[in-house]
Amino acid sequence: MNPIRLGSRTFDLVNYVLLTLFVLLCIYPFYYVFIYSISDPAKVVQGIFLLPAGFELGTYKSILTLPYIKTAFLVSTARTVVGTLLTVVCCSFFSYLLTKDRMLFRKLVYRLLVVTLYINAGLIPWYITMKMLHLDDNFLLYVLPTAVSGFNVILIKTYIEQLPAALEESAMIDGAGYLTLFWQVIFPLCKPIVATVAIFASVGQWNTWMDNYFLVHSPHLKTLQLTLYEFLSSANTFTGMDAASITRNAQNIVLTPESIKMSTTMIVTFPILLVYPFMQRYFVKGIMLGAIKG
Amino acid sequence: MASNITARGNPGRKKIGKDGVLLFLLSTPFIACMIAFNYFPVYGWVYAFFDYKPGIPLAQTPFAGFAHFKAMFDAPDDLINALVNTLAMNFLNILLSPLAIVFAIMLNEVRSTKYKKFVQTFSTLPNFISWVLVFSLTFAFFSTEGLVNTLLAKLGSSHAVDPIGNERITWLFQAGITVWKTLGWSAIIYIAAIAGIDGELYGAAKVDGANRFRAIWHITVPGVLPTFLVLLLLSISNMLSSSFDQYFVFYNPLVAGKIEVLDYYVYRSGIKVGDYPFATAVGMFKTLVSVILLFSVNFVSKKIRGQSMI
């Protein structure tokens, strides 16, 4: 074998090994938390590595019956569904209106929109403003601020502009209004771009918790992410309040703070895993979203 | 309100017409939303110039001038520390950002499409989980009762590791976690860039007798370099406000001195201590530095690439 081919083969081998190692590094934490969460809490303290120790779904059962976990799950789901729908509808209808040259003040409005990509007032002014708008302790805080997102509007507007104008014109002759035109002609045509926006908006909604942490103190509006964060940080400072109360709630199953954390982690991760396979074909478009937002 | 007045005030505008007014009226809810959540908060900067206390209307609070800005620089220890931490951690991230290119090239060299897809699928997953979840996974691994220490104890080591609470390695540890979370995702843009390279170049290189490594070095790397440059400049201009979530969840008293970034300092002095004007002043200082960074990076971009970023 000549040295160049040998070098190439070695490269392939090293390449496959390194890539596989990195993939394992990405998957294993999830796998570990999963097997921990289904292990018997009493046995698992010995340490596990590849296989669960015993099998016990009791932790899940008792966590899912806890009223505040139920509430948190509902709140998180509600903010994801409502927030995503609102973003999709508002951004796409607004961008449709902005494609109309006849619109009064169109240039000014569009410029104002572009500038929002660059301005950020900062945490404290945002905090005070939200309080002034009475959005603290209010579900609307989760969904309203993201309803009109400059980047999404620009993205959808660019998409609408490259659609053939004839489609809309023929409908217009039939005397349809803007709402009908948008809803029956334009919106269905925007499916690819709207799907991208929707999928990234929903992941964003599910993962956001800082607005909750700063401004919403009502337990009825607490999200799943914040609930998990509080589990984690309370164990961190050894106050153990939450953990202790849970052990009392569940009668005949042994619960440890660790197993509760692991199961809650899985419950929070699960919806992401669920939509993940559908997300992948939108990645390249989503990259642009991410590059600007991040 | 305003829109009604305009609608009635300019009835004779022929070019825009009734139709244009209708279009504008239809968009007022969205315009209102945009102004309320993007422009209205900017007005909050005035708080930095008053001795504002929550609960008392701004009109009844004394004007403070630049006193809060002065206070920030009179006792600058915390500010400097936060600035150093922010810059250090972002600098490490930038230093590690070429790893995404390496990863993309490695992936591109894989011949099996199935394997490629497999690697891509799983390496991008961490990008989509929240920082709370990342913290939870990290905790499961590195806490005192976590997997790593359990394994170390089983192997007979009496020495326990605690990267979450060890301030000497905080910067590196956070950079490592960032790589874990973002590597696969950042590589996608480079994979797209590599796919855009003219395939004939590789053919020509082969004819000229170049081996794989030479082809990578002389074709693939220069091919993705423009993309890298744009992202590099963007991340430099963005560096003061990146990843507050991350440093927030990993913040604990043991590592506070090394993980407190500017955003955290604003949060601590503003929401925790309640000194809104001072925290707003710090936030404005941060914005000012960011704007300077953006313009200098833009200047560099013009010089190197001959095109502006903004």
Q: How is this structure best described in words?
A:
The complex is a heterodimer of chains A (294) and B (310). Chain A is an all-alpha fold and 294 residues long. Chain A has one domain (57-293): MetI-like fold, CATH 1.10.3720.10. Chain A has 16 helices and no strands. Chain B is mainly alpha-helical and 310 residues long. Chain B has two domains: 2-49, no CATH class; 67-305, MetI-like fold (Orthogonal Bundle), CATH 1.10.3720.10. Chain B is built from 15 helices and no strands. At the A-B interface, α1, α4, α5, α6 and α11 of A face α2, α5, α6, α7 and α8 of B.
SSE layout:
The complex is a heterodimer of chains A (294) and B (310).
Chain A: H1 3-37, H2 41-44, H3 58-65, H4 67-98, H5 106-115, H6 123-132, H7 140-143, H8 150-161, H9 165-173, H10 178-189, H11 191-207, H12 210-215, H13 224-236, H14 241-249, H15 257-279, H16 283-293
Helix pairs in contact in A: 1-15, 4-8, 4-10, 4-11, 11-16, 13-15
Chain B: H1 2-9, H2 17-43, H3 67-74, H4 77-96, H5 98-108, H6 113-124, H7 131-142, H8 147-154, H9 170-195, H10 199-207, H11 212-237, H12 244-250, H13 256-259, H14 262-272, H15 276-305
Helix pairs in contact in B: 1-2, 3-15, 4-9, 4-14, 5-9, 6-9, 9-11, 11-15, 14-15
Short structural description:
The complex is a heterodimer of chains A (294) and B (310). With 294 residues, chain A is mainly α. Chain A is built from 16 helices and no strands.
